[in-house]
């Protein structure tokens, strides 16, 4: 039995119109930032080539999309803050994600403030998800305690808050307000 393989044709090089259509499809499909859009378009130009006069204006295209409201770095940062907070990740993890996404400090300020204000609640959420401290089945040995604290710190939480939550005996009630009063200066 003969098998026929079709050779894939290379897509044609991009021009200004094709680049704009590619960018439109991308922002229509994904929540993105200006920097992420520029990186995506640069990768596509590198893969397919450029068949137009001059160099492609990726920054200008990303800025135009922001003017039109297709991209909003501040909204992207706030959504990232809410998503990471819901999963129990802390402010440091958010800051790293915003840096990777190319969000400028001014656009990420509201998101950072939200993460700081919810630091204790997200730490407790993470501890519950990972069965740390009051959510553990049994008191861990010293090495297990260290691993739990390390997991919380890697998740972006303050070390002192992580240690305090890990030290709460299993099955104990947790007073989020008391923890918030005790650790608010450290988490902000």
Task: Give a description of the structure.
The chain is mainly α. It folds into 2 domains: 16-71, no CATH class; 74-187, no CATH class. It contains 10 helices and no strands. α1 crosses α2, α4 runs antiparallel to α5 (91-100) and α7 packs across α10 (176-187). The radius of gyration is 23 Å and the shape is elongated. The mean pLDDT is 92.
Outline, from the CA principal axes?
Answer: elongated
How many domains, as an integer?
2
Please write the string of helix (H) and strand (E) elements.
HHHHHHHHHH
Structure annotation, total helices: 10
Residue fraction in strands: under 5%
Q: How many strands in all?
A: 0
SSE class: mainly alpha
Q: Detail the poorly predicted runs.
A: none
Q: Give the terminus-to-terminus CA distance.
A: 69 Å
Helix-residue proportion: 55-70%
| Oligomeric state, counting identical vs distinct chains | single chain
Q: What's the helix and strand layout?
A:
Blueprint: H1 16-29, H2 34-48, H3 58-68, H4 73-86, H5 91-100, H6 105-117, H7 119-130, H8 142-154, H9 159-166, H10 176-187
Helix pairs in contact: 1-2, 2-3, 4-5, 4-6, 5-6, 7-9, 7-10, 8-9
């Amino acid at each position: 039995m003969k098998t026929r393989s079709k050779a894939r044709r290379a897509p044609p090089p991009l021009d200004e119109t094709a680049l704009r259509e590619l960018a439109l499809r991308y922002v229509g499909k994904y929540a993105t930032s200006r920097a992420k859009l520029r990186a995506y378009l640069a990768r596509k130009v590198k893969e397919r080539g450029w068949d137009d006069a001059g160099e492609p204006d990726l920054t200008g295209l990303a800025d135009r999309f922001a003017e039109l409201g297709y991209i909003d770095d501040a909204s992207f940062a706030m959504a990232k803050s809410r998503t990471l907070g819901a999963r129990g990740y802390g402010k440091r993890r958010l800051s790293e994600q915003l840096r990777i996404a190319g969000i400028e400090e001014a656009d990420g300020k509201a998101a950072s403030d939200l993460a700081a204000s919810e630091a204790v609640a997200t730490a407790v959420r993470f501890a519950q998800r990972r069965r740390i401290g009051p959510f553990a089945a049994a008191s861990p040995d010293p090495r297990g305690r260290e691993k739990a604290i390390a997991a919380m710190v890697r998740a972006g939480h303050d070390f002192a808050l992580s240690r305090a939550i890990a030290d709460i005996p299993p099955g104990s009630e947790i007073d989020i307000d008391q923890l918030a009063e005790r650790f608010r200066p450290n988490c902000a």
